[in-house]
Amino acid sequence: MKYFSFFAVSFIAIGLGYLSAIQMGPVPPLGLLLDPSHGFWQNSYSEDDLAREEIEIEGLSAPVSIRYDENLIPHIFAENELDLYRAQGYVTAQHRLWQMEFQTMAAAGRISELVGEVALELDRMTRRKGLGYGSEMGMKFLIENDPETLSYLEAYAEGVNEYIESLDQASLPLEYKILNYRPEPWTPSKSLLLLKYMTDMLVGDRDLEYTNLRKILGDELLNKLFPEYPEEVYPVIESGKVWGFEPLTVEKPDSIRYPDDELLLDPLPQPEEGIGSNNWAVSGSKTKSGNPILANDPHLGLNLPSIWYSMQLSTPAYTVKGASLPGALGIISGFNEWIAWGVTNATKDARDWYKVTFKDQSRSAYRYGDEWRDAEVRLEEIKIKGEKKPFVDTVIYTHYGPVVYDRSFRGDRQDTNFALKWTLHQGSNEQKTFLLLNQSKNHGDYLDALDHYVAPAQNFAFASQEGDIAMRIQGKFPLKWEGQGKFFMNGEDPAMEWEAYIPNDHNPATLNPERGFVSSANQHPVDSLYPYYVFDHTYEHYRNRRIIAELESMDQITMEDMMKLQFDDYYLHASEALPVMLDLLGENYEKSEQAEKYLSELREWDFYADPNQKAPSLFITWWNKTYVELWKNLSNSKSPIVLPNNYQTSKLILREPEFELFDHKETPQVESAADHVKKGFEEMVNQMRKWESEEGDYSWANYKQTTINHLVPQFESFSVKNIYTGGGRGIVNATSKGHGASWRMIVELGEEVKAIGIYPGGQSGNPGSRFYQNFIPKWANGEYLNFDLRSEGDLDSVLFTTQLTPSK
């Protein structure tokens, strides 16, 4: 009972919060929670307290050894892959069962089962986007095309279920007790659903907003504010690359008729702005050791339990280590004896919207060209906690995909219907990509593995012991004519249809470029010489330039250099925008004592967003206030729109401070960028004065208040607040208030592979365990854990060992 006092305080806080948080649904039976034999007291343990030397499970063909290192990272040694994945399922469930199930229930649109009617609209939206349908198509694909992968998924599920069956009320993870439900059996489709959930997290579109902007601004002004190839594009695949293939051709229609509706509906939820990832690999020609080095740090929401779970998986054929996703097989970002790989989001538009014209109110048929096509009806039955009858939602599917908004769902916002076409809805086998990467030995194996990958589009960085480095932008990408999918399209017109898909070997890729490195940070994938149309609304403009500039300047690179780069706090956006803002401000401001103090701190700033610095707090507040003023005309639009990004805004205030849209039409005077910079400065001074009077310290860490929330935000006692760390959006160390580097990994591929890694959390999903959040201080300071591959002999004196044996 080492963590009894922590747990008691946590329980009291959670209990009070739960009782007052009506939105969380029915109150749990507190008597059961307080029961000393079955309640929360039974969760006040660390995993080594309850370690068992031997556990019998069904289905194993041979014993499996699991050795836990000092950080509770399991090293699983199995004789074959079926036993390996069965053991992975069992071990992952031991430490992350509630997280696994909660995430898949969210992906399936089943949160109403846990918290009641308050989640019904959320569940309806999830179902209407078609995540469950996509998982079903994935299962159909596996059944018809890949029984081997399906058998591995089944073994994993059986391992999870072995653990579930061993649980009594006392040993249930705490969240089950608080929310008052029990785990249900795991299935292979849940593993696929988890991967669809990740796709939904990482993919967005702005078709609605761009459609509205086109009407408001016209094509010329739209292209000025949102250029598809702005200045200073440093693409993922090096500029000037000669493509060694004959591209497929696609004809743009002679005339394009876009839907002309007044669109007032809410857009789908989008990935949070500024979220992305970094990866890079440097060749031996640039390293001190002569060995390639690969680095990866995916940027996602910071949650507890962490989105990642670290482990090593070994068979006689290979050993792989890195970060796994609880619920999915194998390692997602990691390395083995021969290669390393890492992923970042490729941000390529893979979702399009089509206006559907139904024949009549029955919606049984819709127009396509000169014919009426039959629509399909999918009934979504949503169970609701506390209700006897489920809610049944009727979702219409066209050949494009599901009709998300219609007369029965947010129909008051529009009088038309739009179908969502998305590669997620197509049968695919992303799981096989990672299973093959886990045992790949060279560049050829890596390419073969990626051929199975469809969504979400990812930049796969690669390095091998043979000395190769590579990058490939992988996904299933529609063959589009220029501009296709940027705006809402007319579903009646077959010319709006995706004609085909770009072949895998035409996807942008590079191998051993002359510059000696590959890198991606969610920027433009290619330059304008790439022969296919490429578009997305979220390309990054700062992290990628900083990484490329640093890698170009480096020589004799070491792993320590890569650590510093992953934790780099240089604020490139501020270094480019602040001098312009100071110049526009000039001497035309109220010269109070505090204004002078703030200006002095800004002028002396070295542009590093370190946790103790005060200038980053001043800059981001000043920039945000100015940004609101600059784009007030556009923001006042009744229809949903997207505003120009920070990069384009910075260029405009530098080069066109008198830009027409900076003038507020409702005022008699003509405003310029200088007026908005001045007003933004005055508002910054007032806000910071208030902050100082109420909070005191406005150093960057205290101001941005990085917080790692529990997956249920109301469970505040299971969260970690106000972490002392630097970085921020648009910075290589992209740690903002609730997002950032969810996993940092660096691997050097010499004769003996060297690796380090860290993530913000801990291996355990149990808030009462000392392994629940123990990595956070190291992560916040830019420190790492030793992640070298370890043999059974290297693990004799570790935390504990468990032997999984076949049931007798």
From TrEMBL:
Keyword DNA repair in annotation: no
One Pfam family this sequence matches: Penicil_amidase
Bound cofactor: record note: Binds 1 Ca(2+) ion per dimer.
GO MF annotations, alphabetized: hydrolase activity, acting on carbon-nitrogen (but not peptide) bonds, in linear amides; metal ion binding
Gene Ontology terms: biological process: antibiotic biosynthetic process
Catalytic site positions: 277 (nucleophile)
Cofactor (UniProt): Ca(2+)
Keyword Metal-binding: yes
Keywords assigned by UniProt, alphabetized: Calcium, Hydrolase, Metal-binding, Zymogen
InterPro entries: Ntn_hydrolases_N (IPR029055), Pen/GL7ACA/AHL_acylase (IPR014395), Penicillin_amidase_A-knob (IPR043147), Penicillin_amidase_dom1 (IPR023343), Penicillin_amidase_N_B-knob (IPR043146), S45 (IPR002692)
Family membership: Belongs to the peptidase S45 family.
Protein name in UniProt: Penicillin amidase
